[in-house]
Amino acid sequence: MESTTSTPTPIPSRLFSTANSSSLSVFKTLITNPPSTHYPLATETTSNIPIYTLPPFSSFSPSQRSALQDEWHHILLSGPGIFITKNLYPDPSLLTHVNEVFDSIIASEAAANVSKGDHFAPPNANTRIWNAFSKHGLRDPSSFVDYYSNPWIPLIASAWLGPAHRLTAQVNIVMPGGEAQIPHRDYHLGFQGSSEAAAFPRAAHAASQFLTLQGAVAHGDIPVESGPTRVLPYSQLVEGGYLSIRSEDFRALFQEHYVSLAMQQGDEYIASRCESLADIECVWETDGECGYGGVDWGDVGGFEGQVWEGGGE
């Protein structure tokens, strides 16, 4: 009886290839022929982005809130990767007062000649408040409590991160005439150089996306003409995106197909920070003065030390 030997299955590389052209074709397919999923609790869907108009929090039962979380989790995990909540902050007077607090912090830091780094943009190109969460609390505790006691924020965050999350916040104002950020993936590997990111194994690339969630609250009306945040729904489904988005081919596709939706004061967009290929250009003017781009809050699964604040204080 003849013996047969099977060819052993080769062990795959633990690393993503920096020259993987197949991911470009996957990227093209996802953005030109995305999966079709219906989210029944969404008020509408525009350019593949589900939009939810939020009622008073107390009007929803626990089971209704859980059903919302199911949809939000699916959007971030398997769907377009981004959704918008309208009317998150229905009281304009609160945001007006918080903007005044931010103005005072910005003025104090400018007087102290504090240099500001930036993510994916030249230093000092934008007006930033790094660690706005702590600075807001110290400067004006009353409005800090009113702002962050919004019950929708932990409901949204726990849909992706579970109950044991922490909150960070930054303020970003891109001045009129400022350039957009380059397309990118955010936390955590997005802040590393190409060679550094390539050294992390596939499991680390996959795990990173489940550790953070980004929400950006509009502190003023943001019409399309002003350059709201640019996103590309479903782009987070591309494996190895921390590396592929750095290529010119991917960035060219992003520029060709990105989505940018107007937002009203008090609206918020939600995206897994390391998933969405976002090109942020929140630039607009109100009565000749720069308006507020808003607050980027980041929820962190585990402890705050897991967030790398590139260029922050």
Automatic annotation (TrEMBL):
One of its GO terms (molecular function) is phytanoyl-CoA dioxygenase activity. It comes from the Eukaryota. Gene3D superfamilies: q2cbj1_9rhob like domain (2.60.120.620). InterPro entries: PhyH (IPR047128), Phytyl_CoA_dOase-like (IPR008775). Pfam families: PhyH. GO terms for biological process: fatty acid alpha-oxidation. Transmembrane segments: none annotated. This is Phytanoyl-CoA dioxygenase.
